[in-house]
Amino acid sequence: MINERAEKISRFSALIEANSKIDPSIYTKFDVKKGLRNSDGAGVLVGLTRIGEVHGYILDEGEKIPDYGRLMYRGIRVTDIVNGFQKEARFGFEEVCYLILLGELPKKDELDQFNKFLGSLRALPEDFTRGMILKAPSSNIMNALARSVLAFYSYDKNPEDTNIDNVLRQSVELIAKFPAMVAYSYQAMAHYHQDKSLYIHQPKSDLSTSENLLYMLRPDNKFTRTEAEILDLLLVLHCEHGGGNNSAFTVRVVSSTGTDTYSAIAAAIGSLKGPKHGGANLKVMQMMDNIKENINDWTDEEEIESYLKKMLNKEVFDHTGLIYGMGHAVYTLSDPRAVLLKQKAYELAEEKDRLKEFNLYLNVEKLATKVFMETRNTNKEICANIDFYSGFVYSMLSIPPELYTPLFAASRIVGWCAHRMEELISVQKIIRPAYKSVAKRRKYIPLSQR
């Protein structure tokens, strides 16, 4: 019976595949923008935003000129924002939340009030942890997060109202509660799927978002200031990346239908879960582990260069011909997020006695561009993106790989909520791009004649 069922499924799969394949040349014939990308790799312009701006090159009479990367939040360089709060020895995520959601930098008293407001909202509703997270633990935290977000609909007395005051309330509540959802979903997964001890620590209202995450994730609640600062930086750098990134666009598509906030954010979580979007740093970590295993001298640039060439020639690692964490769809000469993270990663590597490993990352970054240009016989330069260093930073924080993408979500939810509100306010038109049918016309055949 089982073999017969498997054979049927196999036949059905073959049938589906045969009737789903479309000749690639037809896409070219009709000038279809696969992946909503133009032929030069640039994204198709489908909307406008005042939230985030990603700059990586200059277009001069149709020619793409490489340029140093620039990321803007509400028109302000992220580099300036980070330098500002780090110079004052403050955490920056909450300030950036305020800026991205409301569009203005908060004054000191406004930031203090916002921090207190977030602190008062951090705890999950009574019985939510036991009933929604521990009762049905998921082996994947992203799926657990999506389910938890959808469950919040039932705890909201006004879930369907799409007036901006209500959507803002829902947004701030979700942002505040996300760290607890992430921490508890991980603890449930670790306990029920990995047979580890279960730790449920209540969030503390007087701690920042990064501090609360470390406090709730660690059995002993302990962390250093440097650890909290670099996690705070990661949250800041992952907050927003323009309306064209897949999860933000997902929020806009779903929000354009007029649906509720919880449905829109859950859809974005599903988008970010995909390895082509939120899981890139996991591939970097796997690649770097492979490099560490196969290179005898981590300081020998010739040995590293030789191995990278083999990687590009599909001879080693996963045989894809890719150097993960190098290159980006927009950034060319530099990813400003990677530049900022690298500076802070050095401090943490020094504290954790992992400078030798950090220097290996520097060597791979330095040599990858050279090897890529020589192997591919191109003048195109590639730069390290944020994923190249973020996994290494998480590992120095003793954060398990299962949490890399959920922590990304705990930050990016800020951008998602801002894009949802902008879509509801400014567009108010359902997103519906065109698809051309290329199926051959056929006549219906009566059942008895098939």
Description of the molecule:
There is one protein chain. The chain is mostly helical. Helices cover 56% and strands 5% of the residues. It is built from 18 helices and three strands. The chain has helices spanning 2-18, 24-29, 78-87, 93-102, 108-121, 128-134, 141-151, 164-194, 209-217, 225-238, 246-255, 261-273, 280-294, 301-312, 336-351, 355-376, 386-396, 404-427; strands at residues 52-60, 63-73, 76-77. A hairpin with a 2-residue loop joins strand 2 (63-73) and strand 3 (76-77). Helix 12 (261-273) packs across helix 18 and helix 14 packs across helix 16 (355-376). The chain is globular, with a radius of gyration of 24 Å. It starts with a helix and ends in a 23-residue tail after the last helix. The mean pLDDT is 95.
SSE order and pairing:
Blueprint: H1 2-18, H2 24-29, E1 52-60, E2 63-73, E3 76-77, H3 78-87, H4 93-102, H5 108-121, H6 128-134, H7 141-151, H8 164-194, H9 209-217, H10 225-238, H11 246-255, H12 261-273, H13 280-294, H14 301-312, H15 336-351, H16 355-376, H17 386-396, H18 404-427
Antiparallel strand pairs: 1-2, 2-3
Helix pairs in contact: 4-18, 7-8, 7-12, 8-9, 8-18, 9-10, 10-15, 10-18, 11-12, 11-18, 12-18, 13-17, 14-16, 15-17
Q: Tell me the strand order in the biggest sheet.
A: 1-2-3
What is the chain-wise order of helices and strands?
HHEEEHHHHHHHHHHHHHHHH
Overall mean pLDDT: 95
| SS strand fraction | under 5%
Integer-rounded radius of gyration: 24 Å
Number of helices: 18
Report on the biggest sheet: 3 strands, antiparallel
- Structural class from helices and strands? mainly alpha
Q: Count of DSSP E strands? A: 3
Determine the N-to-C terminus distance: 27 Å
Helix coverage percent of residues?
A: 55-70%
Low-confidence parts: none
Shape: globular
